[in-house]
# Entry
Amino acid sequence: MQAAVILAAGKGTRMRSELPKVLTPVCGRPMIEYPLDALHFAGIDRIFAIVGYRSEDVQAALAHHSEIEFVLQTEQKGTGHAVRMCVPQLRALLEDSPSEAVPVVIVAGDSPMMQGETIAELLAAWHSAPCACILGTIEVEDPRGLGRILRDENGNFCGIVEEKDATESQRKIHEVNQSYYVFDAAELVDVLDALTPNNAQGEYYITDAPAILLSRGKTVRALPLLRPQEAVSVNTPEELEAAERLMMR
# Structure
C-alpha cells in the first residue's frame, strides 16, 4: 500500500483569479492534473485531496478520478492543519496494513512541473531504508520565498525554516524545500498533534514535522533528487507563462 495526500485547498490570491489555484489552466489542463500524473506514475494506490476554497468546483473538476477521496479543510490554517484533516483516513490505512509500514507521499496540488520519476525515486529511497520521513530538495540560484533546508556541520538534515521566519544567514542558503515528502504513516499521525502555530503567519506548517521527528530521535533524510524544472514555482500569472513556455519546449 502506498498513499498520497495532495494539498488543494488554497485560493491562490497572487494568481489574480477567482478560480481555485489548482484549477488554473496550464497548457490546457488544470494545474493539479500534473502532480496527479506524477503520483500515478509512481504507483500510488490511494490519494486524499484536501479541498477548501470552492471545494465543490475542485471536486467536480476531478470527478473522473475514482481513486481520489476528498477531505474538506473548512478553515485554511496552513499545510499542517490541512494534513491533520486526513488523520481518520490515515488511521484507517494503518488498520488495513497492521503488519507493515505504510509510506504516505505529501505534495502540493499547485506543482505542475512535478515529475513522476522524482516521486518514484523518493519512494524507492524510503522502501530501501524505511524511516520517519524523507523529503526531496533542490539547490536554486534564487531561493527567495522558499523554505530553506538546514543541515548540521556533517551535512545531516536538521530542519526547514520558512523565509518569513529565517535569519539573515539562513536566507543565504540555496538548498530549498519544494514540498515533496514521504512520511511513515504512523509517524505522520503522531507528529501532526505536535505542530503549533508559533511562527510569523500563525499557521500550522507541515514543514515543522521533520524537525519534530528528529527531536524525537527519529530518522529524517533530505535528498537532493529534484530535477531542475521542478524548481519552477507557479504563484503569479507571469510565473504561469514561464512554466508554460518551459513545458512546451
